[in-house]
Amino acid sequence: MNSVSIRSSFLTDSVAFTYSYSYNRQIKPVTIASSTSPILKVAMKAIKTLFFLMVLLSGLFTAWLFIPIPATMDKQTLDLPLTEPFKLVAYRSNPNDASKPLTYHYYVISDVVGVDDMDPFLVTTDQFVKLGEFDENTFSLTVNGKIESYTNDLWIKKADGKLQHWYVSVDANYIR
Prior knowledge:
By secondary structure, this protein is of the alpha+beta class. The chain has a domain at about 70-170. Helices cover about 15% and strands about 45% of the residues. The protein contains one helix and eleven strands, in the order ββαβββββββββ. The strands form three sheets. It has a five-stranded antiparallel β-sheet with strand order 3-4-5-6-9, with no helix packed on it. A four-stranded mixed β-sheet has the order 7-8-11-10, with no helix packed on it. Strands 1-2 form a two-stranded antiparallel ribbon. The protein is elongated and about 100 Å long. The model has no long low-confidence stretch (mean pLDDT about 80).
C-alpha cells in the first residue's frame, strides 16, 4: 500500500466542511558512494584537525586559569648563629595573592644543608620572632603572630655526614 487517502465531511451551524488528506509514500533507494572526492577528504580532515585543536587549546586555557600561583621566597629577614656550624635563618614568603598575608619561614641550616634542601620548621605571620636560650641541641623562640605550621623535632646534616638532633620550644603569643 503506497498511498493513503482520507476524506471527511461534517456540518456545523449550517456550514459544511470538507477535509481531505492524501499521503503518497514512495520508497527512494539510498546509495552510499564508495569513494569521495580527494578534495573533500582533505577538507574534512582539516576541519576535524582544527576542531580537535580548538578543543585542546580551550581545555589548556581553562586549566591555566585554575592553576594556583606558587608562593615565592623573598628576602632573608633573620640570620642568627646557633652552635657552630648551625644558623637560624628566616625568609619572607610572598603568596602572590593580595587576600593572603605574607608569611615567614624559619629554618635551621648548616654549612652542608641550605634552605632549598629542606622544609621550614616554623611558618608564621610574625617577622620578629625572638630567639631565647639555646645550647648544644635545643633552643626556644617567642612568636607573637599566627603560626601556620610548626615542627619541634629537627634533624640537620653536618659536614661530616652525621645528623644533629635539635629540639625547638616555642612560646606562642598570638596578637592580631
